């Protein structure tokens, strides 16, 4: 991954993609597999917004049963399987227990019927998945005793049993986005971060490229493309609003989806569904209030998700201590023995996602269910422009494929079909991840722990060997960064091979260092020393990078102590 901006302006591309989150990355890879020439620009760093701050879940569609949306169940299950196949190092099954109380709608009888139907609708959920640890088992029904054995602090009053099902979880969401981008780049795509689209290049009623600005230097450029795909998520409409005749007539609604991280595993290896306060107004069949989830993730626990309709600029939102206290009160109400306090919160994650239409002040909020794809030739009479606003990481691949189908029709290349569901991503060409991991740990260098190798394989897949090759040339790069399993070679690799431009890029999106909690000043300074050598920063710039990186943890309770 090299940031060569001159490559963006040297020729006309079949497709110019705006946005380097999961949807833009998937679209760039899909288009390259179909033989199109592709450029992609991202105004910040890749996966720096919603894609990095999701709940790390790859949903298999179970909750869509409540809505009677069988098609959505099938799509979600297929996408979970596809991601598990093409990126087996980054996506794995997550066991989740749903307790049942009493009988009737909240009892295990209804759960049994729903889960049985779900198993039937997703019967092909493991097609092509070789590793046993990556297969999604059938739902299993649990006795009262079974549930209490797993969660002894759960309130036993009225508990009659439960159900165990599996969904998908991402080990590191930004690295999943990077895997799509690396795949596209290896196939010939031209990609750059910190390049902002400022407007559309127009030839009367046709869009034929974008005006862009390098946010690192201020230089301006024009990128020519036969078709432009605007996949900038919540920022997509701001670009459309730059011209009167491209504005969406029906504005999208966004939710600030938020969760928080506890810096330890508090429930073991199974996630737990806990009933919240609010209901799902779209559910045809409801077991009562929606569920919050207490989820093990790496050595942490994720708790969420809370939704709040957001209006205004996409970057203009936060999660306050008052918000966090409301979250904590609600989860403690559903599972009192957790006894969480504000001091337990290591950090929060939040991003804007497409949401449903809700009345002002509504408490029971309607979710967004489907992504929005707009062909501006049909809606505005403007050729060469498509907008894709995604709703879930889970459907990023398939929705991008649908958008690229539309691109191919415009280019009169409609016979080209998507191959991204069956083509392994960069680092993901692994037949059996269990055997691959075992072999990697057994053959590791004597100076490296099994935990470090495990982390490398989970983040890079087969490309973890690229990191080891750096160590062969400089043994000091095998040293771990303070308090982590991240090694110095990863920082160097991020600068040389993964287009990292800032300290935050490395800490938050190229490595595990700051994805679960504040890594500490010492770890940040160690990374800075390495990046000074790699990127030639002055001491003033290094200090600015440290201040900026620490500032990105400004809402981290532990960082403020």
Fill in the keyword field for this structure.
561 residues; alpha+beta; FAD/NAD(P)-binding domain; D-Amino Acid Oxidase, Chain A, domain 2; Helicase, Ruva Protein, domain 3; ten-stranded mixed beta sheet; eight-stranded mixed beta sheet; 18 strands; 33% helix; 22% strand; globular
Strand and helix map with partners:
Elements: H1 6-9, E1 13-18, H2 22-33, E2 38-42, E3 57-58, H3 70-86, E4 91-101, H4 108-121, E5 140-142, H5 144-150, E6 159-170, H6 173-186, E7 190-193, E8 195-203, E9 206-214, E10 220-230, H7 236-240, E11 254-262, E12 271-275, E13 291-297, E14 300-306, E15 309-310, H8 321-334, E16 345-354, E17 372-375, H9 376-379, E18 385-389, H10 396-410, H11 433-442, H12 450-460, H13 464-473, H14 488-497, H15 503-510, H16 521-535, H17 539-551, H18 557-560
Summarize the structure in words:
This protein is of the alpha+beta class. It has three domains: 6-50 and 174-251 and 370-410, 3-Layer(bba) Sandwich (FAD/NAD(P)-binding domain), CATH 3.50.50; 57-169 and 253-354, D-Amino Acid Oxidase, Chain A, domain 2 (2-Layer Sandwich), CATH 3.30.9.10; 433-560, Alpha-glycerophosphate oxidase, cap domain (Helicase, Ruva Protein, domain 3, Orthogonal Bundle). Helices cover 33% and strands 22% of the residues. The chain has helices at 6-9, 22-33, 70-86, 108-121, 144-150, 173-186, 236-240, 321-334, 376-379, 396-410, 433-442, 450-460, 464-473, 488-497, 503-510, 521-535, 539-551, 557-560, and strands at 13-18, 38-42, 57-58, 91-101, 140-142, 159-170, 190-193, 195-203, 206-214, 220-230, 254-262, 271-275, 291-297, 300-306, 309-310, 345-354, 372-375, 385-389. The strands form two sheets. Strands 3, 4, 5, 6, 11, 12, 13, 14, 15 and 16 form a ten-stranded mixed sheet that branches. Helix 16 (521-535) crosses helix 17. The longest helix has 17 residues, at 70-86. The chain is globular.
């Amino acid at each position: 991954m090299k940031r060569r901006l001159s490559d963006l302006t040297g020729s006309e591309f079949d497709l110019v993609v705006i946005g380097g989150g999961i949807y833009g990355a998937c679209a760039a890879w899909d288009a390259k597999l179909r033989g199109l020439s592709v450029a992609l620009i991202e105004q910040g760093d890749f996966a720096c917004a919603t894609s990095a701050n999701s709940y790390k879940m790859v949903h298999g569609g179970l909750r869509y049963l409540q809505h009677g949306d069988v098609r959505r169940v099938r799509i979600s299950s297929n996408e979970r399987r596809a991601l598990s196949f093409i990126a087996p190092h980054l996506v794995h099954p997550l066991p989740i227990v749903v307790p049942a109380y009493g009988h009737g709608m909240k009892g295990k009888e209804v759960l049994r019927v729903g889960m049985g139907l779900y198993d039937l609708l997703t019967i092909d959920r493991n097609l092509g998945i070789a590793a046993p640890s990556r297969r999604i088992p059938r739902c299993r029904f649990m006795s009262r005793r079974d549930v209490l054995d797993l969660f002894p602090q759960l309130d036993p009053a009225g508990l009659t049993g439960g159900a165990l099902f599996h969904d998908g979880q991402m080990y590191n969401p930004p690295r999943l986005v990077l895997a799509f981008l690396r795949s596209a780049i290896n196939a010939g795509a031209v990609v750059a971060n910190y390049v902002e689209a400022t407007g559309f290049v127009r030839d009367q009623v046709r869009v034929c490229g974008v005006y862009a600005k390098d946010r690192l230097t201020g230089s301006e450029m024009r990128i020519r493309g036969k078709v432009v795909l605007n996949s900038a998520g919540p920022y997509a409409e701001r670009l459309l609003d730059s011209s009167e005749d491209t504005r969406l007539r029906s504005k999208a609604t966004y939710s600030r989806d938020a969760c928080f991280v506890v810096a330890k595993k508090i429930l073991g290896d199974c996630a737990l569904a806990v009933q919240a306060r609010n209901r799902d107004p779209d559910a045809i069949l409801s077991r009562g209030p929606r569920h919050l989830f207490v989820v093990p993730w790496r050595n942490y626990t994720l708790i969420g998700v809370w939704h709040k309709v957001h209006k205004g600029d996409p970057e203009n939102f936060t999660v306050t201590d008052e918000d966090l206290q409301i979250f904590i009160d609600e989860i403690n109400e559903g599972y009192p023995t957790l006894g969480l306090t504000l001091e337990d919160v290591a950090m929060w994650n939040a991003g804007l996602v497409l949401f449903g239409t809700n009345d002002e002040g509504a408490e029971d909020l309607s979710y967004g269910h489907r992504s929005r794809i707009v062909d501006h030739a049909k809606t505005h009479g403007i050729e060469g422009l498509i907008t894709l606003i995604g709703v879930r990481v889970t459907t990023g691949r398939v929705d991008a494929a649908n958008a690229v189908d539309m691109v191919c029709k415009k280019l009169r290349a409609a016979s080209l079909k998507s191959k991204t569901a069956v083509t392994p991503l960069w680092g993901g060409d692994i037949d059996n991840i269990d055997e691959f991991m075992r072999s990697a740990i057994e053959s590791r260098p004597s100076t490296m722990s099994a935990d470090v190798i495990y982390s490398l394989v989970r983040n890079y897949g087969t490309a973890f060997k690229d990191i080891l090759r750096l160590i062969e040339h400089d043994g000091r790069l095998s040293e771990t960064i303070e308090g982590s399993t991240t090694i110095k070679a990863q920082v160097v690799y991020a600068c040389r091979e993964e287009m990292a431009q800032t300290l935050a890029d490395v800490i938050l999106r190229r490595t595990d260092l700051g994805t679960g909690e504040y890594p500490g000043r010492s770890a940040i300074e160690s990374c800075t020393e390495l990046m000074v050598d790699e990127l030639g920063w002055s001491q003033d710039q290094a200090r600015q990078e440290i201040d900026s990186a620490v500032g990105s943890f400004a809402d981290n309770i532990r960082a403020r102590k």
